[in-house]
Amino acid sequence: MKEERIKIDKIIPFISRKHDPEILDKMKSSIKQFGVILPISVIEQKDGTYEVIKGEGRTIASKLAGESTVPAYVFTPEEMTSTEKSMHWISTNFVRAKDPLKRASLFNEELKLGLSISEIAKKYFISENVVKNDVESLKHFSEKTKERVSKKFISFTNAKRISNNFKDAQAQDALSKLILKTKQKSETTRLLLNTAKKIESRGEKVTTPNLRKELKDISSNNNILRQGISDRRNNYVFLNDLLEKFANDKKLNKILQKQNLEVIAPKQI
């Protein structure tokens, strides 16, 4: 296997598949800014073409970005048989399309069989960070969290956010329950996690009742703050109107002028 830049017009797909136009557009923007960071994988053919077994999307996006070549890992037919080629393509796309929880479980099983994170990443043509993060997250998921992810009550991403911050099963249960009820909005998830950290910092347990109480206090304080802002705004409007009247009061201005004073209109301030 060798690494080199190859011409895009010489690349042919092994098995062509449909690509999401929105994703291709994002990839194109990224390639324009940073280039292709991870080389594609191809097999050099006798006629001088290259059969892509990994990176068809990056190839298309590179062409859309105006590139004429892409970095590639180039294999010879001897280095990769047709069976190995098919298995690589299937495993790569299988893992990408797979449910994140099942994917993490698959990686976990591979580790138990003795494969390293690096070997798993190479086997499935994905980054070592993806394997590592999936396995680490799964290790800290409570049974309830796993159940809620598998039933798609909460996303794998939100479950990771919870388990990365809280290893306690009770805390995970309380947070995932409230995140589920708030329709998993990212800003709400951040608020819940920050609230849970605040509770934990006081040496208290992160439970549903404690979270609800803390959130109620936050809501109450926000209402007080909003009322205070509203009062100050009303006072400002009142004073502003008063200054306008003073500035336009000719009699008052004459009196003030005798004292070498003047009223400045709000628009002049």
Model description:
The protein has 269 residues and is an alpha/beta fold. The protein has three domains: 2-89, Alpha-Beta Complex (Conserved hypothetical protein from pyrococcus furiosus pfu- 392566-001, ParB domain), CATH 3.90.1530; 99-140; 210-268. Helices cover 63% and strands 10% of the residues. The protein has helices spanning 21-34, 56-64, 82-97, 100-112, 117-123, 128-140, 143-150, 156-165, 169-181, 186-201, 208-248, 250-258; strands at residues 2-7, 11-13, 40-44, 50-54, 69-75. Strands 1-5-3-4-2 form a five-stranded mixed β-sheet. A hairpin with a 5-residue loop joins strand 3 and strand 4.
Q: From the alpha-carbon coordinates, what is the Rg to the nearest angstrom?
A: 31 Å
- Domain count: the total is 3
SS class? alpha/beta
- How many H/I helical runs? 12
Shape: flat
With strands numbered from the N-terminus, the spatial order across the biggest sheet is 1-5-3-4-2
Order of helices and strands: EEHEEHEHHHHHHHHHH
